[in-house]
Protein: Gluconate 5-dehydrogenase
Organism: Puniceispirillum marinum
Amino acid sequence: MNTNADITVSLAGKTALVTGASSGIGAFMASELGEAGARLVLVGRRKDRLDDVLDGHDGISIALDLTQADAITGVKAACHDAGLHPDIIVNAAGVNHRKSADDISPELWQDTIHLNLSVPFLVAQAFVSHMKTAGWGRIINIASLQSTRAFENGIAYGAAKGGIVQLTRAMAEAWSQHGIMANAIAPGFFPTELTAPVFENADLANHHARNTAMGRNGKLSDLRGPLLFFASDASGYVTGQTLPVDGGYTAK
């Protein structure tokens, strides 16, 4: 029986830019894209973590805070200096402050919406010109269970992740005529820094596992197949779609 480990995709000659690449889903996806042969542009706040992910792969790491006004300009400049032109973009950077609707401040609201929703658009917009010229590009956004479900203390995060689904459709409408496919992956519960409060509570983690059709939470390796599909020629006639990778959580 085939498993994710059996999937072979070559991304040789491609360059993949991954935000939020210093940990969690971003780090995993960056490593998988590198293993598939892509040159890597890794963006995150922790230089040491980025360099650990980059180790053994061709590419560069860019340590900066994407919430800063000049961050996108900094990423473009670093790519230009290295002679790298991203063909694949994975928008994995994110934040979830887990505040109630009554308690979330305007500053935390703006921070959440900006990093989770505005930055994916601005990063893609910054590099789409090269993709248009090449006639080929892949944009992979990271959605969430909260794109379609309301969770406690998740009003800002849920609003942003709901927006990601529509942003993905709008990117497809704007750019797919140029050979640029825009899709999103909506993970269920995976063990990452962002979901640490869930997995530190065994009862809560087990609750979410029971809410899947498969009876378990995700393993990062479960994301490999969907990632390589969306990053490669295999998805050449698939665009504007959001794929839940959640063990059937949203099927129940």
User: Anything to note?
Assistant: The longest helix spans residues 106-134.
